[in-house]
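Anyone? Bumping this.
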Amino acid sequence: MLIKVKKASDAKSSEITPHSVYLDRRKFLATAAIAGAGVAFGAIAPPAFAAMTPQMLPGVQKSKWTLDSVGEKMTDKDPVTKYNNFYEFGTGKTDPYKNATKFKTKPWTLAIDGAVEKPGQYNLEDLLKPHALEERVYRMRCVEAWSMVIPWVGISLADVVKRVGIKSDAKYVAFETLNDPKQMPGVRRPVLNWPYKEGLRIDEAMNPLSLLAVGLYGEEMPNQNGAPIRLVVPWKYGFKSIKSIVKMTFQATMPATAWNESAPQEYGFYSNVNPTVNHRRWSQAKERRIGDFLKRPTKMFNGYEEEVGQMYAGMDLRKLY
Amino acid sequence: MTRNDVIRKIVKPVVFVACLGPLAWVAWTAYSSGFGPSGPLGANPIEYINRYLGDWAIRFLLAALAITPVRGITGWNAIMQFRRMIGVYAFFYVCLHMSSYIGLDQFFDWAEIWKDITKRTYITVGIANFFLLAPLAATSTQGMIKRLGAKRWVKLHKLVYPAGILACIHFYMMRKGVQLEPIIYAAICAVLLGYRLAKHLQKKAAAT
């Protein structure tokens, strides 16, 4: 399993109920009864079944960010997993879904270095082990003026930062995505200055909203959504929520980010969702929620102003976009 | 039937109908699947339709620009009979592309549309290209050729060259990062216009 060390008593991944079956328990019971009868007559169940379906994450706890707190409809899993910007797997929206099927995310090592007390190469399982997974339903607003409501599963970034212990000169944290031309067809072309890089100011990283996500819809993170571990910062445009993270560096200076290097006039370091700041490519005043026909007005900080607004008090967000 | 009759009465109508194919496919798919986020047009059908129509607009425009060089290189004169049709289809798909932007993407929010045109360069370029192509489509009839006189008509229709360039710029700017597809279209456009420039320079050299 991805996020925990195996104990003898643990369920094998093949024993965990696939999501679709879980959702359809009654039918499953009926089918199981028939299958049971079949076994009695010598039929053998296909063993590969569980490997084909995404694995449910065990022990996921509720958080204060529920569907009710968002107050909107959840986006279907189908578009969330088939409409992605993950340029490492191609620039088309369906490319990641098609090209990331064989992406190997186990084992996974995350390097944490820079101004920290406990730098090192962290095995993902070890990194996650001390933390409880929780589900957080967040709005996701892409800079391309579309949006979704997604139930992420993950751990608070602040908890991880506290655990590795940052030093006083850690003013920013830089993130890096895996850059593997063998597995990622997108990085064979100079679409961006690979590897993909992102960054946060330390107070942003420590904000309770910042999430290191390892799953969605209660299941392990699909490859195309940034498996095995990605950032989710819902008050910023989607590209800030860097995927498939291999490195976190704590540093004194503002880190370079991939989109900022590509088009500095369009993508600032902060890139907070802000309907009042003009963008050269898309109007940010409105957004289309995936599944809707008409666009809706975009909210300041994507509706998270209460949680994050104070971090930017006194800053000219027109200049520091 | 003479060869010309075959072209006029059979091949032309077939090509005419075939050129409606992309529109028919997307209209039927959108209609039959609804606008749901799990249908064949993907999670964002409006974006899909808008880009699809734009793709076909630039393809027809480059196809129209390709006809003269193809004749020049292969000596296949009959292909010239299709140039106007392909050119008018390019404008037809430009109009559809623009309509889907106005009607589907922006849903007639004229204030937002105006902001887009004035603030977002690739949209400015796109709209400019519409106004560049409109007089060409309007003067595409036999009657208009006569009224303008062949010389002036030919001069006016040279506007299709900057239109091809603007279309490629529009496409390149619309994509994020450095992407391959718009570069391929721009390269094709460069070859097609480069052919004309080479011919022009040859003629000039021969005249002196």
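Late reply, but here is one note on the structure posted above: Confidence is low (pLDDT under 50) at residues 25-51 of chain A.
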